Amino acid sequence: MKKQIHSLAVTSLAVSSALLGMTSTAHAAGFQLAETSATGLGRAFAGEAAMADNAATQFRNPAMMTYLEGTQMTAGAILVMPNVDVDGHVTVKGVDYETSAKDIAGDAVIPNFFVTHQLNDKWHVGLALGTNFGMATEFDDSFRGTQFGNEASITAIEINPNLAYRINDQLSIGAGVRMVLGEGSIGAKSSADLTLPPSLGGITVPKGTTLKYMKGDNISWGWQLGGAWQINADNRIGVNYRSEVEQTLEGQAHGFGFNPLNPSMTYDGSMDLTLPASAEIASFHQLTPQFAVHASVNWTDWSTFDKLEAYVPSLETQTQLVKQENWEDSYRFAVGATYRLDAKSTLRAGVAYDMSAVSDANRTITIPEMDRVWLSAGYGYQFSKQFDMDFGLTYIIADESPVSEPRSGISSDNSSALFGGSFSGTTSGNIILVGVQASYKF
Asked: What structural domains does the chain harbor?
């Protein structure tokens, strides 16, 4: 049996989760979260790796800390209000039944905290507390597609110390260590009463029977590297790379698929989950003393999210496939603008396009991944030389996209279809994000 996670790690995860009050839903591609600051939210996170508004800059590029003077602290939160629906029909023995699920992702608050300190003219240090990945979807028992998944959730809290060095007036570099406290679960239930054929044991399976459920947590480590090039006084380029993080979520599993004779029996087990690597290149251009434009391109290595498997040492077949995913690398494109109204007030705006991390052929109902368009606006007000506040508002439009399960050529999907039929339909939705943030310079 794999070693159980140390009790101190579990306690740290619980304390950190309580501190952050985090229940997350995904709003960038896959289950990646872009919501790192209200400042960035107001410009659709365009140009983040080249921007240094406040201490939050280190989470997207630690090299940008070299643009901050003295000691700075930033704290805030983003309220997420998603409206994601799944509509379609199931086919059971040639008969179609309409079914739908509304608001499968609940509202969430995503908080953050950042602090930076200038050691001297060359060196800066910082600490970031936030999240880069998270999602939660859930279907009630009235939805007739739960045989393919009735819930999925991922929470990944990051504690991220960073260090930056100014090489000269043009070049800066930065690096950080990422301590990731992860927790995840995934499950599926039968959506109809049925009796399996004699060849499969002739067992009666009531509606609502858990087919497979796995939940666990883990602490693991990653890193990030960043750089900044100040081309001249008005133009800057920033780059950042965040490593993948391998998580082994230690916990428990149960369900019909693990033990048909006793689906409620629990087993110690684990599930591997890769939080993918990502990279960003961004630019900032001060066109006039009041007006600046900025842009960024992001890449995420979602092809590493291939499948979810439960490892249950006490079973004869120790490795059990929970869900085949077959995701693909994705890109995000964003452009934004900043306009300084006066010495105290700043306006921001931005648009972004998030590419889906799955093809139409591999989309699933539990993670209804779709292309997204961001429309953002923000406002900042400087109350004094030390204290300012930022506000951001974003409306995300998600494309209506097809989803069908079982998917072609995936045997685990075909097995799930035995417990309620096949599903065909669409996913659609929109998301409203509202952010507020305070920053203080000591």
From this structure: 7-441 (2.40.160.60)
